[in-house]
Amino acid sequence: MVRAPCCEKMGLKKGPWTPEEDQVLVSYIQTNGHGNWRALPKLAGLLRCGKSCRLRWTNYLRPDIKRGNFTREEEDSIIQLHEMLGNRWSAIAARLPGRTDNEIKNVWHTHLKKRLKNYQPPQNSKKHSKNNLDSKAPSTSQTFNNSDNFSNIQEDINGPVTGPNSPQRSSSEMSTVTADSTAMTTITIDDQNMFKQLDEMNSSESFIPEIDESFWTNDLSTGDNSNFDMEGTGEELQVQFPFSSVKQESMDMVGTKLEDDMDFWYNVFIKSGDLLDLPEF
DNA sequence: AAATCCACCAACCGCGTACTG
DNA sequence: GCAGTACGCGGTTGGTGGATT
Q: FRET partner for A2 with CA separation of 20 to 30 A, picked from A40, A74, A227, A243?
């Protein structure tokens, strides 16, 4: 069943806002605040629906909006954040003061996607982005240089790490991730330590090392990922990978054995926004 | 000069979810 | 626990203006 558009239903005005309407909206909000968006247009004397008013205010009229072209730094930040957060435009906008999610979304679709298209990702990077692990993020890879990003994203996932309203989770509350392949590679780490490690790696020269073709098995390379499975099982998340062998040279990380390919882990833990968003995680 | 194409961006739309009674 | 309401979000659309043919 299709919900009727609110403006149509009410016989309210649609389309571009006039300067007069802008003025009415701004002066009303400056005087009274926006409070209830639904009631606002009636109270302010606007023939618009509350939704339209909210959009106009948040995307255009808000005093803290930064107008004008995006700087190269801002664009780079968007690319980095999109790499990590996917199409979560509001989360990205929250890290770019003065920019709205709508604006960022537009810039992404009109400029940045093209920029990335011209960028040749390292071999393999898209092979393990199939099967929904990476459904929200493009399969490109790059070096990160914003040292705040991982901490911020950690906050996004777990809530603020410090502060009166958001106490740090105890280690028993911290979720674990278990990666299990048919080669019986099992890794358990907690996400707090993981982000700490990633922050450290982030400050190094090259966050994502090159990987060689042999890292991937034929199963995955041929795109037969039907047996890929991820499921949340209470406190523990089981992740099954379809490949039967992984590079076994390991590094000691977070007190646990991990493969040395950080591109892999990056995709598993960072690019997979869905995985990280699971409340059980 | 006219027609067409294309890029840009403001605004709309519907869905998911938080909130409230 | 449920239903109704309101809001926020991401995807999409449509108008506009500049570039190209």
A: A40
* Residue A272 pLDDT grade (very low, low, confident, very high; cuts 50, 70, 90): very low
Angstrom CA distances, A155 to A78, A82, A167, A172, A273, stand at 18, 16, 12, 18, 13
User: What's the rounded Cα separation, in Å, for the pair A77 and A13?
Assistant: 37
For the segment A112-133, what is each residue's pLDDT rounded down to a tens digit? 877 776 654 443 333 333 233 2
Angle at alpha carbon of residue A66, lines to A60 and A71, rounded to 5°? 130
Residues 6+ apart with CB under 8 A from A42: none
- Strand C nucleotides in reach of protein CB atoms, 7 A cut-off: 5-12, 15
**What count of residues does chain A have?**
281
* Signed CA dihedral, A147, A108, A276, A141: sign only: negative
Q: Are A17 and A32 in contact (CB under 8 A)?
A: no
Instruction: Say how far apart CA A137 and CA A116 lie, in whole Å.
Output: 12
- Check if residue A4 sits with its Cβ under 7 angstroms from strand B: yes
Q: 3-state DSSP call for residue A280?
A: coil
**Region of A15 on the Ramachandran plot (φ > 0 left; ψ -120 to 50 alpha; else beta):** left
Nucleotide with the nearest C1' to A91 CA: C9
**Among all strands, which nt has the closest C1' to A87 (CA)?**
C10
Tell me, what DSSP letter sits at residue A208? S
DSSP state of A161: S
